[in-house]
């Protein structure tokens, strides 16, 4: 087993890459045998957070990180852990984006919920306040124009919850789609009904939680009716931000301060707070300063993170914690990756919903995938290997077949045309 050099020495980028993969649960490869809840918990713990996204061209984003690490596991079981009592995960907005987190993290985020409830957007804590811009702007208007409205929304949930945002209009006042946005500057995607603004504020403040999903639409209920009583009664740590940095450091393995707690990290912190905590963790020996080859800024290694051989095979979600920091992915894997779902069709290079293919400790190809549920087919419109990639055929064919089986799709259809795609199609 290789051992990383310590303070003051350079860390080869290949070693940093293996550390990052190991921290995210890829070093040992996928487990054999039945994937039980214990193994699912381990994969969730390694990933740290499961980002939630509405795009469903392949499958919902939060399902994919566990597939990448475990293979053929039960999505229904993950749903139970997330949205059925006794739940082990809870949903929170902008822990890292919208994400599912272990319930034991709830006390670590109470200070963020209090800050959101107080709407002290200009405070030193403001970089941590987990509220979308529509909530910030909309709540300023609601307080001035509709005093008491938020309280009526909360009372409706208390009486009738769980409810969707569309079911929450205490006075039955609703805007039409053609009406102008009452909160200029929020953009079309944030042109929410007032009840949606109110309930999302209550969600960010921790007063309501996501009780479940109906056709993937959030169901809101009082937090005390959603989360286990033991979680709600758990004391808040004296320094919850420090605990969040520890969690991020374990999940990142090795990275800069921005990788740990910047805007692309697990939990964004104010710059001064991040510097203080990182300094304290360096002094305690939990973070070890290192210099990663090719990365000009100071990096830090979690003291338990190891450089171990990696023999992985996985298709990675665009929202996987391993690669959601695109700059770090570029540095560590020499893999320039940007999501294409918001790119106009004529400007897309590799396809629409493109998943990087991890083989060994390298990202070796980009695979565009679509689940055609009407024909029970996993469609592969594009396969783009990296310039120096070789011997991908058997591994990629096996991974595509595994994914089709996991999604319950009977057929697998490769529509792309290239020497590699023809060889993969033949292998299948």
* CA radius of gyration: 22 Å
Largest beta-sheet characterization: 5 strands, mixed
Structural class: alpha+beta
Topology, number of strands: 14
- List the helices and strands in order: EHHEHHEEHHHHEEHHHEHHEEEHEEEHEH
Give the helix tally. 16
Neighbour order of strands in the largest sheet: 10-11-12-13-14
End-to-end separation in angstroms reads 36 Å
| Helical content band | 25-40%
Strand content: 15-25%
Question: What is the mean predicted local confidence, pLDDT?
Answer: 90
Shape: globular
Low-confidence stretches: 1-8
What quaternary form is this?
Answer: single chain
Question: Can you lay out the helices and strands and say which pair or pack?
Answer:
Layout lengths: L9 E2 L1 H11 L13 H11 L2 E2 L12 H7 L4 H9 L5 E5 L4 E5 L7 H9 L14 H13 L3 H12 L33 H11 L3 E7 L2 E6 H4 L2 H5 L6 H13 L1 E3 H5 L9 H14 L2 E6 L6 E4 L9 E4 L10 H8 L20 E7 L1 E11 L4 E9 L7 H14 L4 E4 L4 H9 L1
Parallel strand pairs: 1-8, 13-14
Antiparallel strand pairs: 2-4, 3-4, 5-6, 7-9, 8-9, 10-11, 11-12, 12-13
Helix pairs in contact: 2-3, 6-8, 7-8, 11-13, 15-16
Which descriptors apply to this entry?
alpha+beta, four-stranded mixed beta sheet, 16 helices
Describe the structure.
- The strands form 4 sheets. A 5-stranded mixed sheet has the order 10-11-12-13-14. The chain has a 4-stranded mixed sheet with strand order 1-8-9-7.
- Helix 6 (133-145) crosses helix 8 and helix 15 packs across helix 16 (419-427).
- The chain has helices at residues 13-23, 37-47, 64-70, 75-83, 110-118, 133-145, 149-160, 194-204, 223-226, 229-233, 240-252, 257-261, 271-284, 326-333, 393-406, 419-427, and strands at residues 10-11, 50-51, 89-93, 98-102, 208-214, 217-222, 254-256, 287-292, 299-302, 312-315, 354-360, 362-372, 377-385, 411-414.
- It contains 16 helices and 14 strands.
């Amino acid at each position: 087993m290789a051992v990383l050099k310590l303070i003051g020495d350079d860390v080869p980028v290949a070693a940093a890459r293996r550390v990052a993969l190991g921290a995210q649960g890829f070093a040992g490869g996928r487990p054999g045998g039945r994937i039980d809840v214990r193994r699912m918990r381990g994969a969730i713990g390694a990933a740290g957070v499961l980002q939630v996204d509405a795009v469903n061209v392949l499958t919902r984003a939060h399902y994919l990180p566990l597939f990448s690490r475990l293979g053929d596991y039960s999505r229904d079981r993950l749903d139970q852990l997330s949205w059925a009592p006794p739940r082990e995960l809870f949903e929170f907005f902008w822990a890292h984006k919208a994400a599912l987190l272990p319930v034991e993290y709830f006390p670590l985020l109470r200070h963020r919920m209090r800050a959101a409830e107080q709407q002290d957007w200009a405070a030193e804590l403001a970089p941590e306040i987990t509220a979308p811009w529509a909530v910030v702007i909309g709540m300023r208007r609601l307080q001035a124009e509709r005093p008491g409205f938020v309280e009526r929304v909360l009372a409706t949930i208390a009486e009738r919850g769980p409810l969707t945002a569309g079911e929450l209009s205490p006075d039955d006042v609703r805007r039409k789609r053609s009406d102008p946005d009452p909160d200029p500057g929020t953009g079309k995607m944030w042109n929410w009904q007032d009840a949606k603004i109110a309930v999302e504020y209550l969600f960010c403040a921790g007063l309501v939680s996501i009780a479940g999903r109906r056709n993937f639409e959030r169901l809101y209920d009082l937090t005390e009716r959603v989360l286990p009583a033991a979680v709600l009664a758990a004391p808040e740590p004296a320094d919850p931000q420090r605990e969040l940095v520890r969690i991020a450091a374990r999940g990142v393995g090795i990275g800069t301060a921005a990788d740990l707690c910047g805007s692309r990290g697990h939990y964004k912190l104010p710059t001064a707070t991040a510097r203080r905590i990182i300094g304290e963790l360096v002094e305690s020996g939990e973070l070890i300063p290192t210099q990663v080859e090719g990365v000009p800024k100071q990096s830090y290694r979690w003291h338990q993170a190891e450089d171990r051989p990696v023999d992985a095979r996985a298709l990675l979600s665009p929202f996987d914690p391993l690669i959601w920091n695109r700059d770090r992915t570029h540095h560590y894997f020499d893999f320039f990756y940007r999501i294409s779902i918001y790119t106009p069709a004529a400007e897309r290079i590799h396809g629409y919903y493109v998943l990087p293919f991890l083989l060994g400790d390298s990202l070796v190809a980009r695979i565009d995938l679509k689940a055609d549920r009407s024909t029970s087919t996993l469609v592969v419109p594009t396969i783009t290997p990296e310039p120096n990639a070789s011997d991908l055929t058997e591994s990629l064919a096996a991974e595509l077949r595994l994914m089709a089986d996991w999604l319950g799709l009977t057929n697998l259809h490769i529509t792309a045309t290239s020497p590699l795609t023809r060889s993969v199609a033949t292998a299948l």
